[in-house]
Amino acid sequence: MSDRTTVPEQLFLLGNLGTMITYAAIAVAIAVPLARAGQLRANRLAVATALIFLTSAIGHGLHAYLAFAGLERAGHSVAIGWVWALAWWNVVTAAVGVYYWTVRRGHAPLRGAIYTGPHQQRLLDEADTHRATLETVVAHTDEAIIGLTMEGIITAWNGGAERLFGYSAAEIVGRSAAILADEKGAAEQREGLRRIVQGERGVVYEARRFAKDGRPIETALSVAAIRDRTGRPTGISVVARDVTAAKEAAERRRAVEERTHQAQRMESLGKLAGGVAHDFNNILAIIVNYTDFAAEEAAGNEALETDLKHVRTAADRAINLTRQLLTFTRGDTIQPRDVDLNAALAEVQAMLARTIGEHINLITVPSAEPVVVHADPGQIQQVLLNLAINARDAMPDGGTLVLEANVAAIDGDELDMQPSLPAGTYARLLVSDTGEGMTADVAAHIFEPFYTTKPRGKGTGLGLSTVYGIVSEAGGSLNVYSEPGVGTTFRIYLPMVTVPGAATTAAPRQDDPPPGSGQTVLVVEDEPALARVVTRILAGAGYHVLTATDGRQALALFGQHDCDILLTDVIMPEMSGRRLAEIIHGTHPDLPVLYMSGYSNGLLGTTHVLDGDIAFIEKPFTANELLHKIAEVVPTVRCRGGG
């Protein structure tokens, strides 16, 4: 440096250097934290402040350089280009200053910061108090409050967010919000940000997000723009609330409501089915018995006998369909007793051997020891027949059908048991075929009511739902295994009777019933045609018959005549058969009563299971069935009704 340099010039040089370093340090101190927090674009005021100090530092650096160059040249003029550079840089500094004050005007709390009077100071103190209160609320609220840049970078993270997602603020600030979502959720985030950028005031939606440990969280999200005083969005606020429990509760309510609606629909269907069955079974009883009457008269007329057999077969099909519908809707009345499954297999084999077709190889495998369950024998037979008929239909080109009874132990953890059963030893029926088999999708729906894969007019969709209803009502369960092109096996598990009584079967009695000996039967039936059928059957077998069409007429006849047994329909107008019997038993408690019905509607027992002390015959019945039942119930000693 020239020895002609004066002390003031040296001080000027050192002062500019010191100021340059100070301003540069301040600019760095502001910019570096902003960059780390990802707020270089969001925090415009801080960026403007950093630019002021940066441009000032560069300006002072230019002054120091010119002073240094002037000192070195010992009074010689400095190149004019540097002078113009300094002048233009001062213009840049002024422009940055204008930008700074423009941004600053949008930040009211900064106004009066240089000097505040008592009133301004009170307002600032109140603002600080409100701000501190708001910060406390935000920090301690249970809802997650998150700040984002317009690009989705997290800039703020309250305590609620830490508790909800498991990330601390230090771990997640500066990272993309996409860390909380899967691919679908990230696309939802981008769409929400796009809508905010395009001017929407807020976006509200529900989405699945993920905690730090990978746990899914169902969240309700409220996304809104953070705007400056000019209305320009500078960031995004997100309020997230955990709605996992609420959604689970809503799903449970929906499931309960669906089950309730299903139960209501089934109840309505049951009432409809019961009403139809009551009338239809009366009609079937008339058809069946008049067909049998005609068949007796047509003996020797082969053509007429053949026609009547077709009518009888059609009636039997209608009877079976009605019973399926009632079983499915729990509208029938069952009579459970101890049933030997080996005997049930033998009966079903005898029926199927005549009807299933020569193209089916029918095999029965009884258990080595008696296997006894407590169930309605007719329903056990119905289960086996329904499954066997389904198996036959699955083998149009022929195959093998196996019916088997045995005992099986289960541990309670078996899959695909419908419904599930506790561990134990159970009686088991197996019905296997080598037919077409089913796919898993079809097998998943086969027990649903009215579900069928058969062509229109070939199936009702009630067969397997009826099987399911019978088995589940008996405390049992089903398992289905099927493979397309291989075949299907149904396994039916039923509780065993370990100390069986007299095991019975469902086979109708074929022996001739004992004739009556003049006993008086009071028949109460509101269907006149059916009443005539019953009268004809009983009178032809040696009984004396009194007929009434309702309860009042029956009481009048009972008061006038000697009666040995009351044979009454269950459901009748004005007075049910059960009520009629109660009135008569008030004066003649020993009078036997035989109820008949195709649909009892729970009038004979606390449930659709028949009370043990009640004699009952199900409509439609044949003459043979009715006479056997009457013989079981009617006493040998007459019981007086009238005086």
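That was protein one. Protein two is written in the same sequence-then-structure order:
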Amino acid sequence: MRKYLSTLAAVALLAAGCGGAAAGDPGAGAGAPVSGGSLTWAVETEPVTFNPHLYAQAKARLLVWNSFEALLTHDDKGGYVPWLAKSYDVSADGRTYTFKLRDDVTFQDGDKFNAAAVKANLDQLLVPGYAPGVTSTQLKNYAGAKVVDDYTVEVDLKQPDVLILDFFASPQGAQVSPKSLKSPNLKAGGPDVVGTGPFILDRYSKGQEVHYKKNPGYNWAPANAGHQGAAYLDEITYRFLKESSVRVGALTSGQVDVIEGVPATEQGLVKADPNLQFAQHLNSGTAYNYYFNQTRAPFDDIKVRKAFRDAVDVDGVLQGVYRGTATRAWSVLSPSGPYYDASLEKTYGNNPAEANSLLDQAGWQAKDAEGFRTKDGKRLTVRIVLSAPFVRDKRDILAQAVQAAVKQSAGIDLQVKVVDQGTATDATNKNEFEVFDNSRADTDAGAALTLIVPKGAPINRHGFTSPELDAQVAAGSATTDPAKRKELYTGIQRTLTDNATLLPLYAPADQIAAQKKIGGVGFEPTAGVPASAYNLWIGK
């Protein structure tokens, strides 16, 4: 049995925000941390839900950790630090995890946090139709939980699964008050769905802003949280400003104190302003990828998939859209992670001659009056449907750049649609798409691959499956040996590349710009996304 104690975490004390978020340079004007004050932060993305169990937008993660907390958090090496748990034990067979919980934690509605609360959250996640994506992936090997005593809970697995720890450090594994689990607004979240976090969500105006006030009794931050006790700020308002130019304008004019999502076109302006600070960090998990739907024509033909991939000068497209600020991706995984296979770099792509040869071989030899390839009188048309709530980083503009590239290089008609979430979901359910986009900010790449690769996985909309891939994903989840996991995940990356399952584009990154007087600005270690507001302060 291996034992992980909270005392081990004490040596990992970092200057960080709640949720293990490493603090950035607080700026010359911030000075030492001080308590008090109100701050306004403009964000790019409005959450589709404030319920952490149903979290799906990386851009909303900083809001999740304001109100909710998990049993564990991550350090800057990808390891685990106790949070609401004091320690955990793992049985010799890897099938039983025993968590010793803190006994000094209270939910924002006054209920005590204890083992019964943890079990209630796990039971809720198993309710049919509540969180199917979680139960089919993160909890696929979950067998049940037992309350051993008030502050000890035992979690049993059907088979060893090291990713269960990543779940207990993820938003989906965050703890919601048992009272809130009975709320009629549970799925949407909001003021009556509460956790144990350092801020209380007390006001939400859809399409405009969300407001948090300090949780005055908060005193259970993880060891790497940067400080202990209540948050520095009295309150914080997040304004939803979708347009990047509007966010930057609000910051430079002093209407807001902090923004995230600073586009390449505005970074020079921000960096040159003596009153502002700027920081950025690559996200973990996967790259931003275009996946090809192999369940229908034309991408059921590997020649057409490879032709699309070869028709795009990804470096040129990224330069045009992001002006040298984007990090090129070559694999399904982000290059920031430990399992990324760098040997795939420059092994394909930007080869119009090969793209055209492949399309000729696939029978798309004729062209219509607009220059698009045709076969049997039908144009070579493929569709990508972007869900507006998930569009970030000018991905709609990026899609238009790819659209122009594949038309010019190979005569492929890529049709780009940006639609509401319901319309996008409907297109997915009806299989009315040929390309879909996705990126994941999972702290463990294995968690992302579990969602994307196996047969029947929630994000396996590309349709490529094989028993070998399924076995590799399962083996990666079952072993704690980093070298073995790297070997398995390298094999998966190479198989997906050989099959032309996807076109990797760039490694997602987050940028934060703030007034120099704002201290504690930073990112979560491992995940690389903006931290919660716990460690922010306003300099005098």
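Residues 1-28 have pLDDT under 50 and may be disordered. Keep this in mind for the problem set.
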